[in-house]
Amino acid sequence: MHSRPRAVSKEEASIPTLGDLEDCLVDTRSAIVAFSGGVDSSLVAAAAVRVLGERSLAVTAVSPALATGELDGARRVARTIGIAHEEIRTDELAREAYRRNGPDRCYHCKTELYDGLAVVAAARGFDAVFSGANLDDLGDWRPGLRAAAEHHVRHPLVEAGFGKSDIRRVARELRIPSAEKPAMPCLASRVPFGTAVDRTVLAQVDRAERAMKDLGFRDLRVRHLGAKARVEIAEQELARACGPDRGAVERAILGAGYDLVEIDPSPLRSGALTRGLPLADPGVGT
Q: What does the CA dihedral 78, 82, 83, 86 come to, rounded to 10 degrees?
């Protein structure tokens, strides 16, 4: 006796699936994935290798703005999902507009990235470049999306209707190692707009955040405020930082070269420095 098929709600029918993502890629002959190893680009890379096989390549940009450990993490994810993986060196610090660190800093960073990926694509015959941008990014200040539009970068997660929760859900289904990885934007995002970015500042932020991770904290930001560092920590870890481990946190940050330490009593909110800026550029879908 056959059971009757279960009725599917309107809400369930609108939930994007891995199949939806793969369908967005089937007409692409070959592609490079701009690959940080975070959950967003990892899911795009996993879908790309499933659909395109050897005609897909994950490429990670290495620069002083990349936090310690991120490259090793990207390598592990690439091995696990089975996609070919390469690295390129980018030099966003050579761009004066990037160093100046205005609200459009990410535009100059992404322009450097996509310039580099375009060179690889042209030399190796890849037809497309994919990013890990998703629907949630469209509700935030993302000048890097303008750089993507100028370089004709595609955003498969946007095309397939994926928000962040959808990405993590499907990444868990595929057992992608970065499925639960906290977001880790570039180190320059810890520096308030208008404060110049250079190698010394980026290295100091990196030392401070690495010291925090050595204490067992996973999801945090060390905001660079000159001689002072403001430490922002995710809600589930905040009580420990403000309580029994407060002294260890302060010593860790002072050891990274800061003179003053402030532990923000409010939980970490990603994008704190861009809150109030306009939403993403309308060219995202190109």
A: 50
In 20-127 the beta strands, taken as DSSP E runs, fall at: 31-34, 56-62, 85-89
Degrees (nearest 5) of the Cα angle 111, 109, 131?
65
Nearest CA among 194, 186, 197, 200 for reference residue 93: 197
pTM of the model: 0.89
Q: Is 245 helix (H, G, I), strand (E, B) or coil?
A: coil
Q: Provide the phi-psi class of 257: left if phi over 0, else alpha when psi is between -120 and 50, else beta.
A: left
Q: Which CATH number fits domain 14-181: 3.30.40.10, 3.40.50.620, 3.10.450.50, 1.10.10.10?
A: 3.40.50.620
- The 10s digit of each residue's pLDDT in 12-65 is 448 999 999 999 999 999 999 999 999 999 999 999 999 999 999 999 999 999
Give me the torsion for CA of 67, 72, 77, 80, rounded to 10°.
-170
Burial 94-114 (b: 16+ CB within 10 A, else e): eeeebeebeebbbbbbbbbbb
- pLDDT band, residue 1 (cuts 50/70/90): very low
In sequence order, the β-bridge partners of residue 225 are 228
Q: What is the tens place of the pLDDT at every residue in 210-219? A: 999 999 999 9
CATH code for the structural domain at 187-273? 3.30.300
